[in-house]
Specification:
Elements lengths: L19 E3 L10 H7 L6 E3 L12 H9 L23 H45 L18 E6 L5 H13 L7 E2 L1 H4 L1 E5 H10 L1 E8 L1 H4 L2 H17 L4 E5 L11 H9 L3 E2 L5 H8 L14 H13 L14 E3 L10
Parallel strand pairs: 1-2, 3-4, 3-6, 6-7, 7-8
Antiparallel strand pairs: 5-9
Helix pairs in contact: 3-10, 6-8
Length: about 350
């Protein structure tokens, strides 16, 4: 069978009485795995295979590995060589297959990375507020979330706008958490930081302008308060003028479908996120929305004692006086501000 241009072998080429097969100088480049099992099934059969064009490629690894494992049956094994050079004995088929498949592995890895990045991007844009809140509350990258120089001269961290009916929520729940340690935000509230002496709309504008954020405590009571709605409009206009997110809406009651909501407030709620009271991450979300900076304690203590006394009187009055939903156009002023000062 030597020099017969043989290109392939079949099971019928191996009789039971076969002792030796000379296949030298043919065109045998590969052998099927089933034929290999028959070929090397008996350790007594000897082969001569020199001079055949054997490719040492991954798709021919079964033939090459079989020759390496059964080299004692191939009498001219040391004369076998790969197409392109190199002996069969030195062919590392595992490495050859790895490098041949490397582009495939790289393509699969790149596809998986792209898919993972795409999933992460989708998840981030779907849950970006929750992700940023958790990162901020956990202290991750908090050094990158510092307020810039634009607001450094503002007196307050936050102005809180609310209706009288929600005063207990503000004074008993919201303010202690914001002004107390470790947060110590400087807050402006009308009952404490305004005293008689100036026009209410001017005080609203001044409080909004001097605060880095404005919290709107949105409730059924809020929708009934003319002054509270004016504070929302003032804060909204200020945020639009500054081109910054300054307005924080706390949804105390579910009023999103309330018929009393005017078009401006309804449009804002439909295009901006709000923080719902009772949310498991309420405080985390609120703290994240507030200024991210090192706060100086003590600013919020202005007129605190007087403010608490005023609030107590406001709760005891019947009907209440000095309250914005029932408030006449009285005059107020900020602490240490002359009654006729220009705001």
């Amino acid at each position: 069978m030597m020099n017969n241009h043989i290109e392939s072998l079949s099971l019928h080429d191996f009789p039971e009485t076969l002792e030796t097969m000379d296949l030298r100088y043919n065109r045998l480049s590969t052998v099927d795995e089933e034929v290999l099992q028959k070929m090397f099934g008996s350790s007594k059969v000897e082969y001569h295979l020199a001079g055949n064009p054997i490719p040492c490629l991954c798709n021919n690894s079964a033939f090459v590995v079989a020759l390496q494992h059964h080299q004692h049956q191939v009498k001219d094994y040391r004369d076998l060589s790969c197409i392109g050079g190199g002996s069969i004995d030195q062919a590392n088929m595992r490495a050859i297959c790895f490098y041949e498949r490397l582009p495939v592995y790289a393509g699969v890895a790149a596809s998986l990375c792209f898919l993972l990045i795409l999933i992460l991007v989708v998840l981030y844009y779907r849950y970006r507020n929750e992700i940023l809140v958790i990162m901020y509350s956990s202290g991750w990258f908090s050094c990158c979330l510092i307020e810039d120089e634009l607001d450094k001269d503002k007196r307050y961290d936050v102005f809180i706008s609310f209706a009288y009916g929600d005063s207990s929520f503000v004074s008993d729940t919201l303010l202690p958490r914001l002004e107390g340690p470790p947060n110590e935000f400087s807050a402006c509230v009308h009952y404490r930081d305004w005293v008689p002496g100036n026009w209410v709309p001017a005080l609203i504008a001044h409080s909004v302008a001097q605060s880095r954020r404005t919290i709107i405590v949105l409730s059924k009571n809020f929708l009934s308060s003319v002054w509270a709605l004016l504070e929302f409009r003032t804060a909204h206009v200020q945020a639009l003028e500054d081109g910054r997110v300054r307005l924080i809406v706390i949804l105390l009651d579910d009023v999103t479908n309330d018929a009393r909501i005017d078009d401006e407030l309804r449009a804002y709620l439909s295009t901006n996120t709000f923080i719902r009271w009772g949310d498991a991450l309420f405080w985390n979300k609120l703290l994240y929305a507030l200024p991210h900076r090192k706060r100086t304690a003590g600013l919020h203590t202005v007129n605190r004692a007087d403010g608490e006394e005023v609030m107590q009187r406001m709760r005891e009055d019947d009907p209440p006086i000095g309250l914005r939903q029932d408030m006449p156009l009285e005059f107020f002023s900020l602490p240490d501000t002359p009654a006729n000062a220009e705001l």
